[in-house]
Write a structure and sequence with these properties.
By secondary structure, the protein is α/β, with parallel strands linked by helices. The protein has 3 domains: 86 residues, Udp-n-acetylmuramoylalanyl-d-glutamate--2,6- Diaminopimelate Ligase, Chain: A, domain 1, CATH 3.40.1390; 223 residues, 3-Layer(aba) Sandwich (UDP-N-acetylmuramoyl-L-alanine:D-glutamate ligase); 150 residues, Protein-Tyrosine Phosphatase, Chain A, CATH 3.90.190.20. Helices cover 33% and strands 24% of the residues. The chain contains 16 helices and 25 strands. The strands form 5 sheets. It has an 11-stranded mixed β-sheet with strand order 10-9-8-11-7-12-13-14-15-16-17, with helices on both faces. Helix 3 runs parallel beside helix 5, helix 4 packs parallel to helix 10 and helix 15 crosses helix 16. It is globular and about 70 Å long. The termini are far apart.
Length: 472
């Protein structure tokens, strides 16, 4: 908490408890910032915020006299960044900041770094916020500015020294991270995604590049030299650049990766020496993710023996090729894959090791780029033995229409549509026989379903868990 006079010169000493941009979340003593959303002008909710106990209001237009101090600024969205950082005493400067960006692999890499670096490290991303003392779900991969600095401050209060965070392109598009400077920035890969926001691939890439422009002068960029946009991203880096991939001149050169029943075995060269990592993570695509994490370890005062030993113990990342065990005689895989590239990688992997059928449950989020849907549908139809198309955060779109676009002009007949996602998953589980693989793709460990303008409680994991409670 802070006095209002500490935040704004000339104001009184009333205590400010927290910063809020959602009037419905305002509590006694909060300061309400009237930011402009995509479709919402929060100046319209000032009276509601005051009724709920707001002690002060920050505005960018004339709202007349109010019963609490009204602070005028030129741009409330811009002001929020500075206010939140000031209110929480610049928590980003008290943490070693590690940012991970890319279309696919962000969660895996950021979580692996969190597990590798131990109790001094915190995590923020798709799987929530967590450190040694707490773990909570959050709505966005990279939170809005008011929550971003709140979470950072919580990590500081818990004596964390490092933050491994996923950095979304939308976060830079919305200017949430403009003031954050990073010690380490990592690129996993870039494929076409989120064009509903960015409109063009070039805009999307430019937002990814912003992470590397935000590197500290003595920071380190860790880049995937195998990615087709590597050179473009590298050109944005003014700090030291380390690379990983399959080229001889890479800082970490992958020699080979072998898929096994237990996971993958990775052979690589670093600093002139050859090493082997036996990982429990499945899929050859994880070789690049692991390589990036190893390089982070080398920048964190860990010996290579320590890095390999710790990574060997990691079994799975929540919602990322997560194998669920309920004493069934078939495999259940929970995965967040929701792009053509991610679906292709996971299905290619399981086709290599399957001894039964692959049954895939999937959909496509509403209000997002429709262009990828036929590509997604083509991948799952061609690489699955059977597909159940269903809802996945439909928002205001018709689920049947989304499924029509997923199927496109495919002549495949190895699918059904079950609109309700819970029923779709249960259908797949009932169909599965010994040695089959049921892949539930799209939502991972999300705990909501976005329908219309509402976020309703929902969890793929809980649907599966409850199913086996009933049948066992």
């Amino acid at each position: 908490m802070k006095k209002l006079s500490e935040l704004y010169e000339g104001q009184d000493d009333r205590i400010i408890q927290a910063i809020k941009i959602n009037s419905k979340e305002v509590r006694e003593g909060d300061i309400f910032v009237c930011t402009m959303g995509v479709t919402t002008d929060r100046h319209d909710f000032i009276d509601e915020a005051i009724e709920k106990g707001a002690s002060a209001i920050v505005v960018s237009r004339d709202v007349g006299e109010k019963s609490v101090p009204v602070i005028h600024v030129s741009d409330t969205n811009e002001e929020l960044k500075y206010l939140a950082r000031r209110f929480y005493d610049y928590p980003d400067e008290k943490l070693k900041m590690i940012g991970v960006t890319g279309t696919n692999g962000k969660t895996t890499v950021a979580e692996l770094i969190y597990q590798l670096l131990g109790p001094c490290c915190a995590y923020m991303g798709t799987n929530g916020i967590k450190c040694a003392s707490f773990s909570e779900k959050i709505r966005n991969t990279t939170p809005d500015v008011d929550r971003l600095y709140l979470y950072m401050d919580r990590f500081v209060q818990e004596n964390c020294k490092i933050l491994s965070m996923e950095v979304s392109s939308e976060a830079f598009f919305r200017h949430r991270l403009d003031l954050v400077k990073y010690d380490i920035a990592i690129l996993t890969n870039i494929t076409e995604d989120h064009l509903n926001i960015h409109k063009t691939l070039e805009n999307y890439i430019d937002c990814k590049c912003q992470l590397f422009r935000n590197l500290k002068e003595d920071g380190t960029a860790i880049l995937n030299s195998s990615d087709s946009h590597y050179e473009q991203v590298k050109s944005c880096c003014k700090a030291r650049v380390l690379t990983y991939g399959y080229q001889r001149n890479d800082t970490l050169q992958i020699i080979s990766s072998r898929e096994t029943k237990e996971g993958i075995t990775l052979d690589f060269i670093y600093d002139g020496k050859t090493y082997t990592l036996e990982s429990k993570l499945g899929g050859s695509f994880n070789a690049l993710n692991l390589a990036a994490v190893i390089l982070v370890g080398t920048r964190s005062e860990l010996s290579m023996d320590e890095i390999l030993s710790r990574l060997k113990q990691v079994k799975a990342i929540e919602g990322r090729m997560e194998k669920l065990e309920f004493s069934q005689d078939f495999s259940i895989i929970l995965d967040y894959a929701h792009t053509p590239d991610a679906l292709d990688k996971i299905l290619t992997y399981f086709n290599k090791i399957k001894t039964g059928r692959i049954i895939t449950v999937t959909g496509s989020a509403g209000g997002r780029e429709k262009e990828k849907r036929p590509l997604m549908g083509s991948v799952v139809l061609s690489k699955s033995d059977f597909v159940i198309f269903t809802m996945d955060d439909p928002r205001s779109e018709d689920v049947n229409q989304i499924i029509d676009e997923l199927i496109g002009d495919s002549l495949k007949k190895n699918y059904i549509r079950v609109l309700d996602r819970k029923e779709a998953i249960e259908k797949a589980l009932k169909m599965a026989k010994a040695n089959d693989i049921v892949i539930v793709a799209g939502k991972g460990r999300d705990d909501y379903m976005a329908i219309g303008n509402s976020y309703l409680p929902y969890s793929d994991y809980e649907v599966i868990e409850n199913y086996f409670r009933k049948v066992n």
